[in-house]
């Protein structure tokens, strides 16, 4: 389903990036970071119109001939980015929301671990396995 999943910290530093094809990881780093501008734009426009209440799911951030990039922001301003292939026309908005919910739940488990130091990159094997399952389309 997804070809790349990224977790970006408050200061736009990558905490975790995983791609199906490791040879294209640099290309996906670029796409993820370019989509962060759209995330910031959406967050400021939503904040101006409705106060501080916002939807965590930001929807489609960027679309190209090859990929569609979706975004999600937690209340603590941690950003989740999922990149899918544009040719995947069977993917519905509901399924993308479900992927983000699963990602957010497993991220919460990692952060609640007493041995995790806030701000460090995510190195959890359980988190990595769950992300691989999300990318494979396993529920």
Automatic annotation (TrEMBL):
Gene3D superfamilies according to UniProt: 3.30.450.70
Protein name, UniProt field: Trafficking protein particle complex subunit 2-like protein
GO biological process terms held by the UniProt record: endoplasmic reticulum to Golgi vesicle-mediated transport
Transmembrane regions listed in the UniProt entry: none
InterPro entries on file: Longin-like_dom_sf (IPR011012), Sedlin (IPR006722), TRAPPC2L (IPR044760)
Keyword field: ER-Golgi transport, Transport
Compartment(s): Cytoplasm, Perinuclear region
Family, as annotated: Belongs to the TRAPP small subunits family. Sedlin subfamily.
SUPFAM superfamilies: SNARE-like (SSF64356)
Gene Ontology cellular-component annotations: perinuclear region of cytoplasm
One Pfam family hit: Sedlin_N
